[in-house]
Design goal:
The chain is mostly beta strands. It has a single domain, classed as 3-layer Sandwich (Rieske Iron-sulfur Protein), CATH 2.102.10.10. The protein is built from one helix and eleven strands; from the N terminus they run αβββββββββββ. The strands form two sheets. A seven-stranded antiparallel sheet has the order 1-2-11-10-5-4-3, with no helix packed on it. A hairpin with a 2-residue loop joins strand 3 and strand 4. The longest helix is centred in the first third of the chain and has 16 residues.
Length: about 150
């Protein structure tokens, strides 16, 4: 006698496709988020203390993190032992938060594929406008981002 496998209940093609669509939709909507740092106001500027554990990503070259500023989200990148870059993390095309790719030193929009250089210039669209570049400096283990 051959044992019968239990029948699948509610296994229609439509149910299967709906289930697969939900899985695809869910995985397509999740993107990695950059680490968030801690910044404080220092006069009219924004300061990040590299002694703060929340800012540890900036201790090494290639490290990056995002901080909230009045009216913007800023990505801060350690480009060398003595230099940092601060740039708007918000894509000028769709308003999505860009991700920093250290190997190519680019900011990449996960929503529509725009790519920006380390200076904020558009490498490929659909974005047409560059990212806002802020003046930033590193001295005495403090990153200062000029907001004005």
């Amino acid at each position: 006698m051959v044992a019968m496998k239990p029948r699948c209940t509610d296994c229609s093609r439509r149910t299967l496709l709906k289930g697969l669509g939900l899985v695809v939709l869910t995985s397509a909507c999740t993107t990695p988020t950059p680490p968030a740092g801690t910044a404080s106001a220092c006069g009219t500027d924004l300061c990040l203390d590299l002694g703060d554990p929340a800012n540890k990503e900036l201790l090494t070259t290639g490290g990056s993190l995002v901080v909230d500023a009045p009216g913007d989200t800023i990505m801060v990148v350690r480009t060398s032992d003595t230099e940092v870059v601060a740039i708007s993390a918000i894509c000028t095309h769709s308003g999505c938060e860009n991700l920093y790719t250290s190997s190519s030193m680019t900011f990449d929009c996960p929503c529509h594929g725009s790519k920006f250089s380390i200076t904020g210039e558009v490498i490929n669209g659909p974005a047409r406008r560059p990212l806002r570049l802020y003046t930033a400096s590193l001295a005495n283990n403090i990153v200062t981002v000029t907001l004005t």
